[in-house]
Amino acid sequence: MSTYTALTRATYKAGVRDVATVFFTFAFPLVFLVVFGTIFRDQQVGDTGHGYVDFIASGVLAWGMASAALFGVAFTVMQWRNDDLLRLIRLSPASFSSVIGARYTIALAMGLAQVVLFIGVAVSPFFGMRLGPEPWLVVPAVVAGVTAFMAFGVIIGSVANTPEAVAAISNCVVVPMAFLSGSFLPLDMMPDWLQAFSKALPLRYLNDATAYSLVGAGTLGSYLLALVVLLGFGAAALAVAAKVFRWTRES
User: Fold this and answer.
1) First to last CA, the chain
2) According to the model, what pLDDT value does residue 133 have?
3) Angle at CA of residue 201, ends 154 and 240, nearest 5°
4) Residue 162, exposed/middle/buried by CB under 10 A (0-12, 13-18, 19+)?
5) Which residue, of 105, 125, 130, 238, has the greatest Cβ tally within 10 A?
């Protein structure tokens, strides 16, 4: 058995034992769907043929995937280091790429499962979300989004030494980004300078990719651009993560 396979299995088993974390990972985005979906139920967006729920649901889903990927790996890296698990892993043939690759596999599986559950609820008669012609395009969006935000999570987990620090830093990253990137509020409601600023935020591009794939909002060009930008964010963040990653509290 390879070190990557062993670490993936261990990460999966540790994750499923933490029932509360798994439950809220899936339930938290659904809470926002219920809130926003109830408020904007049956309201239409001009003559697009889509209701507000179509765009709100895709934005909330993007935020949920980003949050799960970032928080999950940040807490894992911090906790494994504090429990000396990373020090023990370092004594084996495992490399940095094996450790992160194993956690990435679990994060990607969680992201895809989130999409299936979330869409299943959103298209129910109560919410009435209408899917676009190519909803399968959400899969590349999940891959690119999880890649970017998991990489940011590795950075946070490497510099934070306590669960409180991880939660504080992660919330400071994800929560403002959700509002500034259009996950909870349409971007066209914001001033021009905020709309321009949102282009520097990775969640903006995950929102664009998710909205295009699920409801057909935007263009194919904007969707492909979003994927490229997300992968670029991921590559840059992973490069930083490799520099700041610590196997122990000291090094």
Assistant:
1) 28
2) 84
3) 30
4) exposed
5) 238
User: Is residue 157 within 8 Å of residue 78, measured between CB atoms?
Assistant: yes
The 10 Å CB-count burial string (b at 16+, else e) for 60-92 is bbbbbbbbbbbbbbbbbbbbbbeeebbbebeee
Average pLDDT over residues 179-197: 84
For range 161-185, the mean pLDDT: 90
CA 182 vs CA 31, 56, 249: distances in Å? 18, 9, 37
Instruction: Please tell me whether the overall predicted TM-score, pTM, comes out greater than 0.70 for this model.
Output: yes
| Cα–Cα dist 61/119, whole Å | 9
Give the confidence band of 204 by pLDDT, cuts at 50, 70, 90. Answer: very high
Q: Are 41 and 53 in contact (CB under 8 A)?
A: yes
Where helices occur in the chain by DSSP H, the ranges are 3-17, 19-39, 52-82, 85-90, 96-122, 138-159, 163-180, 192-197, 202-215, 220-244
Q: Which of 157, 159, 162, 185 is nearest to 63 (CA)?
A: 185
39 burial level (CB within 10 Å; 0-12, 13-18, 19+): exposed
Closest CA to 97 of 238, 246, 217, 248: 238
Average pLDDT over residues 207-221: 90
Contact 111, 68 (CB under 8 A): yes
Query: What mean pLDDT value characterizes the chain?
Result: 87
Question: How far apart are the C-alpha atoms of 162 and 177, rounded to whole Å?
Answer: 23
